[in-house]
Amino acid sequence: MFLTIPTILTWARIAAIPLIVGVYYLGWSDATKNLVATAMFVLFAATDWLDGWLARRLNQTSSFGAFLDPVADKFLICASLLVLLEHGRVDALVALIIIGREIAISALREWMAHIGASRSVAVHMIGKLKTVAQMVAIPFLLYDGHLFGVLDTHLWGTVLVYVAAVLTVWSMIYYLRRAIPEIKARAQ
User: Fold this and answer.
1) Which helix (H) or strand (E) holds 67?
2) In this predicted model, which residue has the larger pLDDT, 28 or 56?
3) Residue ranges per domain, the chain?
4) How far apart are CA 186 and CA 45, in angstroms?
5) CATH code at 5-187
6) Distance from C-alpha of 80 to C-alpha of 57, rounded to nearest angstrom
7) For residue 147, what are the β-bridge partners?
8) What does the alpha-carbon distance between residue 146 and residue 152 come to, in Å, rounded to a whole number?
9) In the list 55, 75, 81, 118, which could disulfide-bond 6, CB 3.0-4.6 Å?
10) What are the DSSP E strand ranges found in the chain?
């Protein structure tokens, strides 16, 4: 099921990355760049929910789709964090924590699948909360202004990205604590 509607939406999230990054190389005003990048991020991030819903609704779930979906999410998040880092809207340590965790947990999940213990690192509510915090913080930080003349998106985006960083560390510890006994049991 390489080219189902849900998988095409997932591929679209990956294809969006150079578009979001590329906006910042155009000769537009900063406010226009921020607005367009924010709108694109929100649109493509929404496909994460939509592709899963469609896969279940159309009975088009697949192993490939289950693999590609979190990869697309991680690419979108990491690329957006690098854009924000480049523009001084997120601290390097926060970006490193979030990106490093994504790499580490992806590798851990791969290893756990290899040894037949993938259930021990299945997605948990902490990881979902981390993702929600990231998915709200990033567009706020991309926008970097006052929404409706009232909401300071830079301030709230910064608060939420720090919340995401804390949840990132917490979720990594959770997954490692679940995985270590399985790894030890298999190593003996």
Assistant:
1) helix 63-86
2) 28
3) 5-187
4) 37
5) 1.20.120.1760
6) 30
7) 151
8) 5
9) 55
10) 146-147, 151-152
